[in-house]
Design goal:
single chain; alpha+beta; 3-stranded antiparallel beta sheet; globular; 197 residues
Length: 197
């Protein structure tokens, strides 16, 4: 009846050292495709992405990868209760990876989650809002990006916008200072930390 059915397997698993190159490639492709409004992203090379993954992301975050059969097509990097990055290869956008990773992050940090994304990253913002995240702060990322950003909190205790209470600086600030030479003087994203489903 079904002689030539090709069913692709979609799985999540913890990062292994052999995944480093693949997550750098996913991060780079995804950032290039989504962040057309950020000039520094358009000039960010694959070699720079590989170096950042090796020197900053891998040593400072817990990483999970999304596999389509045996090919890495997405990843989630967590720093405690912070979603540091969530990237999906453009060929897999809108196929449920974002939801799977947000649910994983909620299970890993049941006390709540925090993240920062660009205000213009509407697909990512819609994903987080669909999963109950609330915007708690708006700002501008430091140079060289200088792009409008938004901080989200994913729990019922979220601090409403305008209360004057700010969340602690996310790991993106450490990344930006080390990688782009920016000043982590407020909450800001690294060069893309999440992607549309």
């Amino acid at each position: 009846m079904f002689d030539n059915v090709n069913v692709q397997q979609r799985n999540l698993r913890r990062f292994e050292s052999r995944d480093e190159r693949s997550i750098a490639e996913v991060w780079h492709r995804s950032g290039q495709a989504e962040y057309t409004y950020i000039p520094t992203w358009q000039s960010f090379t694959l070699e720079q992405a590989r170096k950042a993954v090796r020197d900053v992301i891998v040593p400072n975050t817990d990483i999970w990868v999304g596999l389509l059969d045996d090919r890495i097509v997405a990843y989630l990097a967590m720093d405690g209760s912070k979603i540091d990055r969530l990237y999906v290869d453009p060929s897999e956008w809108r196929r449920g990876w974002g939801t799977r990773f947000v649910e994983l992050a909620k299970n890993l940090s049941p006390g709540g989650l925090e993240l920062v994304t660009h205000q213009e990253n509407h697909p990512a913002r819609a994903l987080y809002e669909k999963h109950g995240f609330q915007a708690i702060a708006f700002g501008i990322s430091p140079p060289p990006e200088s792009a409008p950003d938004v901080t989200y909190r994913g729990d019922p205790q979220a601090i409403p916008i305008g209360t004057g209470k700010r969340p602690s600086a996310p790991p993106h600030a450490r990344f930006r200072k080390r990688w782009f030479g920016g000043t982590p003087d407020r909450t800001e994203p690294g060069p893309g930390e999440d992607e549309p489903e």
